[in-house]
Write a structure and sequence with these properties.
- This protein is mostly helical.
- The chain has a domain of 65 residues: DnaA protein, C-terminal DNA-binding domain (Chromosomal Replication Initiator Protein Dnaa, Chain: A, Orthogonal Bundle), CATH 1.10.1750.10.
- The protein is 80% helix and 0% strand.
- The protein is globular and about 30 Å long.
């Protein structure tokens, strides 16, 4: 799971990452996207993902996943970035 998390942060849009005004939003957004992708592409439970991110309530993890699902439908930038991450993750998994 740590490799997948590292890959998500590494591949995330660096042009936005460097904008200071977006730094706090991006930090949460990166975490939320990582949680969403971990839930979608691993067999980890909500509790296991929550433990990794020091989230004590598994329902909070579920809320994050549902929030990102909803945002992907309405936020073109987030949708595009998430699809790109999924494609890159898929390629990296095929290489291993």
């Amino acid at each position: 799971m740590i490799f997948m998390e590292w890959l998500i942060y590494f591949l995330y849009d660096s042009t936005i990452k460097n904008r200071i005004s977006w730094s706090m939003v991006l930090c949460h957004e990166q975490r939320d996207v990582a949680i969403y992708l971990l839930r979608r592409h691993t067999n980890k439970t909500l509790a296991e993902i929550g433990k990794h991110y020091e989230i004590t309530n598994y329902s909070t993890v579920s809320t994050v996943v549902e929030k990102i699902k909803s945002q992907i439908k309405t936020d073109l930038r987030l949708s595009k970035q998430t699809k790109q991450l999924e494609q890159k993750l898929s390629k990296s998994q095929q290489q291993t």
